[in-house]
């Protein structure tokens, strides 16, 4: 059986800590921020730990880091290793205090980041242009950066016919917007059930609703605290990194955003809820076979250029492999001991 592991339509994460990095290779995420942990308490004893951005410092490796908190719980990967976390989200249970008195006049928003996809066949070429014009997708040497857009135009036109065939075969467009909107609505409902009256926004990197559009709405709504959640379980420079780099540039130029408290969840592949959800899916699928124990579990992940991993320190491969180990451990606890393998799809 086959399991796609780089998928962005996974279950909602519950909480995690995050770290941000800036070297010349990995984008600096939402800069000029220092994280001092703030606790917002909510009704029914729910607590929200959020981080406040105000300043930054540099560590020995010339990485921009958020400071003011303890080291990350998830420090195995390069992206996290050099960085101090911001902490967000709902944990614990102790007090019963009315929500209004705790969140007060704060307006909490959650911004879900995703890739975006063409909604019609006419969208395919301009969507591909946006994708290939991103230097986190096609990385040209500094001297040749002026060629980025002409090259994007050339590749998008050349690739569009084949791409259109693919989208035509799944109904004439990408389902990503629809799926992401549904996730946003489920997350909103779930937060409200936990007495966190947050608004949830969707910001796509390469198609509507663009991240810029979501940010405009966030400003119009007067959001004062923002949680940024890329919907990619594992961090890669080419996915979450690209979205966060864009967000960073939007924040840098906007007075309202610079002073807004925000926190980012860079990856969440190791969260218990996600691992259990993946194990549930695999377990359910195995049951459809006559001899489930003989089935090979085939994990399929997106490929990223080797240079990202080996030279730029992209943690994607490490996070993916750890994620699969965790899923297999979870299956073992359920007495499911199948053979498994992981393969990376070719990057075209
Ligand atoms: C050319 C380099 C690319 C890199 C690096 C890359 C990384 C990467 N992508 C995903 C997930 C998705 N990518 C999707 C579309 C897509 N990606 C690329 C190229 C790179 N991706 C292209 C050219 C396209 C367009 C599709 C095509 O015509 O071939 C999508 C689908 C979006 C949709 O329409 O619904 C996903 C999902 C990950 C997880 C990743 C690195 C970790
Ligand atoms: Fe891709």
Describe this structure in words.
It is found in: Plastid, Chloroplast. Its EC number is 4.98.1.1. Pathway: Porphyrin-containing compound metabolism; protoheme biosynthesis; protoheme from protoporphyrin-IX: step 1/1. This is Ferrochelatase. GO terms for molecular function: ferrochelatase activity. There is one protein chain. With 348 residues, the chain is an alpha/beta fold. Among the domains are: 108-264, Rossmann fold (3-Layer(aba) Sandwich), CATH 3.40.50.1400; 272-345, Rossmann fold. It has 11 helices and 14 strands. It has helices at residues 78-81, 99-103, 124-132, 148-169, 176-193, 211-220, 237-252, 255-258, 272-286, 306-310, 316-333; strands spanning 2-4, 17-19, 35-41, 47-53, 57-58, 64-65, 85-87, 90-91, 108-114, 199-204, 225-230, 261-264, 297-301, 340-344. The strands form 5 sheets. The chain has a 4-stranded parallel sheet with strand order 10-9-11-12, with helices on both faces. The protein has a 3-stranded parallel sheet with strand order 1-13-14, covered by helices on one side. A hairpin with a 5-residue loop joins strand 3 and strand 4 (47-53). Helix 9 crosses helix 11 (316-333). The chain is globular. The model is unreliable at 7-98 (pLDDT under 50). The ligand C=CC1=C(C)c2cc3[nH]c(cc4nc(cc5[nH]c(cc1n2)c(C)c5CCC(=O)O)C(CCC(=O)O)=C4C)c(C)c3C=C binds at residues 6, 8, 115, 117, 131, 137, 159, 163, 174, 176, 232, 236, 238-239, 302, 304-305, 316, 347.
């Amino acid at each position: 059986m086959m399991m796609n592991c780089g998928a962005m339509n996974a279950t909602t994460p519950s909480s995690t800590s995050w770290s941000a990095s800036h070297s010349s290779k990995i984008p600096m995420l939402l800069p000029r921020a220092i994280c001092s942990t703030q606790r917002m308490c909510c009704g029914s004893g729910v607590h929200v730990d959020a981080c406040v951005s105000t300043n930054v410092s540099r560590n020995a490796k010339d990485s921009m880091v958020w400071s003011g908190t303890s080291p990350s719980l998830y420090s195995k990967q390069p992206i996290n290793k050099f960085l101090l976390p911001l902490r967000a989200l709902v944990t614990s249970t102790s007090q019963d205090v009315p929500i209004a008195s705790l969140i007060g006049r704060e307006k909490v928003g959650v911004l879900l980041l995703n890739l975006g996809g063409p909604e019609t066949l006419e969208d395919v070429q301009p969507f591909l242009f946006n994708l290939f014009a991103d230097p986190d997708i096609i990385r040209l040497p500094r001297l040749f950066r002026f060629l980025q857009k002409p090259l994007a135009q050339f590749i998008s036109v050349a690739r569009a016919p084949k791409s259109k065939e693919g989208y035509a075969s799944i109904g004439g467009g990408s389902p990503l917007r629809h799926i992401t909107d549904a996730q946003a609505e489920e997350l909103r409902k779930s937060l409200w059930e936990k007495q966190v009256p947050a608004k949830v926004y969707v910001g796509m990197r390469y198609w509507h609703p663009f991240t810029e559009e979501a940010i405009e709405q966030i400003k119009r709504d007067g959001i004062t605290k923002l949680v940024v959640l890329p919907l990619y379980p594992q961090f890669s420079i080419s996915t979450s990194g690209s979205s966060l780099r864009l967000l960073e540039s939007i924040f840098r130029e906007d007075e309202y955003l610079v002073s807004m408290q925000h926190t980012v969840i860079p990856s969440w592949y190791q969260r218990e809820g996600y691992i259990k959800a993946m194990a549930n899916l695999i377990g359910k699928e195995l049951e459809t076979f006559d001899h489930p124990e003989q089935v090979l579990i085939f994990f399929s992940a997106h490929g990223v250029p080797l240079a990202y991993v080996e030279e730029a320190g992209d943690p994607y491969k490490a996070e993916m492999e750890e994620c699969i180990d965790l899923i297999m451990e979870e299956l073992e606890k359920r007495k499911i001991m199948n053979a498994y393998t992981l393969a990376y799809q070719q990057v075209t």
